[in-house]
Amino acid sequence: MRGSLALALALALVFVPAPPLHAGASAGGRTHGSAALEVWRDGAWRPLWRGDQAPERWSGADPDFVRSLVWTPVAAGLEWSSARLACAAPAWRQKLIIVRLDPRKLRLSLELDLTRDQQPAWTIDRVPGDAVFGVNAGQFARALPWGWVAMDGVERFHAGLGPLSSAIAIDHQGIVSWTHGGAPAASGVVAGFQSYPTLLAGDGVVPAPLRSGLGVNVKHRDARLALGSTRDGRLLIVMTRFDALGAIASGIPLGPTTPEMAAIMGALGASDAVMLDGGISAQLAMRDPKRGATLRWPGIRKVPLGLIARSPD
Fold first, then answer.
1. Is pLDDT of 31 > 90?
2. Is residue 41 within 8 Å of residue 66, measured between CB atoms?
3. CB-CB contact of 203 with 194 (8 Å)
């Protein structure tokens, strides 16, 4: 596996030309001023975000981007779409897997999955047969989840400390709440966990470190997985896959930077968002209960925690 990924990466670096980026890629005054994102829409690459004009706040979705998405229903309250993204080398072309989930129409839960010797064991192969969706949740330190985790109203792990940490909590009615820089009380929470770094906080605000680069690596590129919520209470889960060489190289861990991922979530209409464990950990699956079809984007690394969605009984 490692050998094939290395070969695919080498071929990508040598043979794949960078997609054209518009004049918005010119150098600017910000830390990531030379960065730019484009999406494939209406048969051409269209500008989405410029580093030298990066907004401090996303007041709403990018209307042209959102209108271009074609949503496929999977189950009541669950649908997905995809988009093609162009960014700077060496990430170049990316595929976005975009899931939109209504927690008021689905039952959400967390699954803590460890081996007997306390090693991570969760993959999408562990998604229960009655579930319609599963994704790796949060970050983890060594073998255990990093930060706060609450399951069925019980706090399982204490809050982690960090100015760019975010906690998401879902109650019995499917109401989503966010706490940035701390953790909420576990009472009444059916599924809640903490992750980092924060991408959007407080009605679309991009955290200052993501704009200044102070204390945050704003140039690192990796495969990404992010969770956000829209202003109407739905959840957005966005995964990136390397798309310069097709499916054979989709597992190469190259993707957007952290500021670029914040822009993607803001352009999709998220008001709050946080990164989940990406890279070779990123994985999600959806199951159509009527047709019995399963859509899978596997990862390589096992993780300790999965977020599961089931249709109501």
1. no
2. no
3. no
Residue with tokens 């679309």: 204
List pLDDT tens digits, range 143-197: 999 999 999 999 999 999 999 999 999 999 999 999 999 889 999 999 999 999 9
- The distance from CA 238 to its chain's CA centroid, rounded to whole angstroms, is 4
- For 155, counting Cβ atoms within 10 Å of its Cβ (0-12 exposed, 13-18 middle, 19+ buried), the class is middle
Q: Which residue, 27, 36, 42, is CA-closest to 92?
A: 36
Nearest residue to 73 (alpha-carbon basis) of 311, 297, 313, 312: 311
Q: Do 71 and 269 form a contact (C-beta atoms < 8 A)?
A: no
Q: Are 223 and 255 in contact (CB under 8 A)?
A: yes
User: What's the pLDDT tens digit per position in 57-77?
Assistant: 999 999 999 999 999 999 999
Distance from CA of residue 217 to its chain's centroid? 18
Distance separating alpha carbons of residues 183 and 133, to the nearest angstrom = 25
Which residues make beta-bridge pairs with 307? Answer: 110, 135
Q: Which residue has the higher pLDDT, 288 or 268?
A: 268
pTM for the model stands at: 0.90
